[in-house]
Amino acid sequence: MYIAITFLIAFIALLLVFWGGKVLLSGSWFLGFLRGSIGLVLLAGALLIVLVALDVYSYRNLGNEHSVGTISFERLGEQHFMVKLADEDGLAREFELYGDQWQLDARMLKWKGALARWGIEPAYRLDRLSGRYLTLQDERNRERSVYALAESGHGVDVWGALRDMGGRLPVVDAVYGSATFLPMQDGAVYEVRITHTGLLAKPLNQQAQTALNEWQ
Length: 216
Fold this sequence. Notes:
Layout: H1 2-25, H2 32-57, E1 60-61, E2 66-77, E3 80-87, E4 92-98, E5 101-111, H3 113-117, E6 123-132, H4 136-141, E7 146-148, H5 158-164, E8 172-178, E9 182-183, E10 189-195, E11 198-203, H6 206-215
Antiparallel strand pairs: 1-6, 2-3, 2-10, 3-4, 5-6, 5-8, 5-9, 6-7, 10-11
Helix pairs in contact: 1-2
């Protein structure tokens, strides 16, 4: 669905490029300045639409609840872990996290009104991985760690712009979905799943389950 939306946006951009070029190249130069201004505005609009399409393309379609990947931990030192995040496509990345707990965040686009009734599913993109200390003193004084998992396409942040609008658009909402802070433990492995309300994490091995039991 989101590939189709991206191609639709790109088609509109191509139309603007065509109209902009036609305005710039057609007719006499008697009204050249006016034609040039209109043409440049149309071309700038086309470029903006292309950048928006690139950002939207980075989101994934969210139908039913499903796994977005696994996250595993290897202790490097006191409150210091090497974290391996393997997404649903099998792409694995490693990060160094400091603290006692971890959290994974996602950006979500939820359609409203007619678009929702037409069956267009929400979209999501993994956004951030961070560590947290249990005590306020450690939070203030010890090394912090947070990583961006995806950058907005070419400087255009559709989700951020929607958030700035405060939900005033009648067709789409930009919301944040986060897994609850969970304990980091040497050898622990968690599965992260996404639903229409956000991210959920569950232990996949005994180390993760033991960490959860001790934490609770």
